[in-house]
Design brief:
With 150 residues, the chain is an alpha/beta fold. It has two domains: 34 residues; 88 residues, Nucleotidyltransferase, domain 5. Helix content is 32%, strand content 17%. The protein is built from three helices and seven strands. The strands form two sheets. It has a five-stranded mixed sheet with strand order 4-3-2-5-6, with helices on one face. A two-stranded parallel ribbon has the order 1-7. Helix 2 crosses helix 3. The radius of gyration is 27 Å and the shape is elongated.
Length: 150
């Protein structure tokens, strides 16, 4: 019984179809999961007219309050009961800058925002600044030269 390799119907090519199927499934999983991982803090901020533009600084401390009253420090969810302790730890990281920017959803009651500001003061915040968005219908403020921006 001689075995001839030429007649054995051996396929020398790699079948990539299963690999492509697996990669497509992984792609779909990542497309669904990634937005939920990156979502973090989400709130509709109040609008204002005469606002100064400030670029986002990753070193500044932000306290967020979403529409449900959940607390966030630098866009990471935290338990409300631990807010004071976590803010103290955040201020300990940069003791020379104890400024806290509060981003609160516009649908929250004033009492909820005031309570968060009191917690921040007790945690050591020297300045508590409320963050808002520019009203899209408001005129642009004059720049340093006194001319209107376009």
């Amino acid at each position: 019984m001689e075995h001839d390799v030429k007649q054995a119907n051996v396929m020398a090519e790699i079948n990539v179809t299963p690999m492509v199927d697996v990669m497509l499934v992984l792609l779909i999983i990542f497309m669904v999961v990634t937005p939920t991982l990156l979502a973090g803090f989400n709130a509709k901020l109040p609008t204002g007219v005469n606002l100064k533009e400030r670029p986002d600084d990753p070193e500044r401390t932000e306290l967020g309050l979403d529409a449900n009253g959940n607390y966030y420090i630098n866009k990471k969810p935290i338990p409300k009961a631990d807010a004071a302790r976590l803010l103290e730890a955040e201020f300990a990281r940069h003791p020379s800058d104890r400024v806290l920017f509060v981003r609160a959803d516009r649908s929250l009651r004033y009492a909820d925002v005031k309570e968060a500001m009191i917690v921040a003061r007790k945690a050591g915040a020297r300045v508590v600044a409320a963050v808002s968005e520019r009203d899209p219908n408001a005129p642009r403020p004059p720049d340093a030269d006194g001319a209107q921006e376009r």
